Amino acid sequence: MAERSVTIECSGNELRYDIRIGGGILERTGRSARRALGPDCCRIVIISNRKVFGLYGKIVETSLREAGFEPSTWLMGDGERYKNMRSLQAALGFMASAGLARTDAVVALGGGVVGDLAGFASSIYLRGVDFIQIPTTLLAMIDSSVGGKTGINTDFGKNTIGAFHQPKGVLIDVRTLSTLPKRELTAGFCEAIKQGAVAGNDLFDQTSQMLERYSAKRRAWQSDRDFQRSISEMIAAHVAFKAEIVSGDQFETVTRKDGRSRKILNFGHTLAHALERATDYKYLKHGEAVGYGILYAAELSKALALMDEKSVNLLYDVVHRAGALPPLDDIDQKVVFEAFRFDKKHIARTLQMVLLKGIGNPVIVSGNDIAQASHSQALNRLFNK
Ligand code: NAD
Ligand code: GLY
Description:
By secondary structure, the chain is of the alpha/beta class. The protein is 46% helix and 19% strand. It has helices spanning 29-37, 50-66, 85-97, 112-124, 138-144, 182-199, 201-214, 225-248, 269-278, 286-303, 309-322, 333-340, 372-382; strands at residues 4-10, 15-22, 43-49, 70-76, 105-110, 130-135, 149-154, 157-164, 169-173, 346-347, 350-356, 362-366. Bound molecules: nicotinamide-adenine-dinucleotide and glycine.
């Protein structure tokens, strides 16, 4: 399968790295890492979890050794609830005991949880060491591995401690998706729909067509070359879009409110983070919560007369095509509202929300401009009340 490459470049900053996408990329990890990290890098700490390392760790480790690195591995717990201070501390302790120096590096092998935590550990260890992202979930491939947002969850909210720390490279081997559980694919597709919805018709249509063509075939995808080619193309298109937005607004400028500010990538995330927090990060996959968040934002957009019924229905249709989302019946709406208070998208005491005037036309709206009744109505619709 042909390898694709997207380069991310942020103007005004000395920042440039390649995102490689294709099949068989893992076998070439060592060579790619050497190119990205330079000749002085000697030790590498691979951060992963038991499940992902069991599947792909040896390939990565062997390739790194062949390229002259000395790899060692630290495995974190599997799941959102392990993206926390305790795991961070343990990761930093391991990096120190492995003798990682400032010229050395970290490799994050796994989904967004591993990537966010490993990236954050790299950003603060010795005031910052290099790291490489090897995302193994669809969500991490199209979103979290690119753009340098790293962090952990705390008692006071989701991703509330973190740093912008760009990786030195991103290696996306689409073959790792062959072992990804179906539910995780659904979660990844929800994040893809979010990205398509703010990007424009091309990316949105490419994503929804992918869902249309392959929903029934997902389990057979391993042997399906056409699927691998299409999903690589889709991932490359998402990465290119994300790279463009990040290049223009690397640090998510607080004062920007325009339709190309990095804030637009948070579409669907206000409700998503509240739902995750309200369920203690255990019930919903992040991408599933984003699926609900997209519908919530669509309902609010309709309530503010920004978007018509047809576009709202289209979003419902595409999100449902991604796969079944766990029901919200047992979640207390009051707890969800309470969780909004902990959202880091508050600016000057007001929660900013990304809504849509249509596909590809995001707007940033102050929470003060949205009536409480509209919030309640939108939530009731999702909770089937
Ligand atoms: P995840 O990292 O929890 O991975 C999902 C599950 O899939 C885990 O059980 C994992 O072990 C398993 N897995 C991973 N790769 C696999 C493979 N190839 N085969 C089989 N199993 C595999 O979840 P996620 O959806 O990848 O990431 C969600 C996280 O990403 C959240 O914490 C979210 O906040 C974060 N995120 C960050 C950004 C960012 O810009 N930094 C953007 C979006 C999401
Ligand atoms: N996932 C949102 C961002 O990277 O800005």
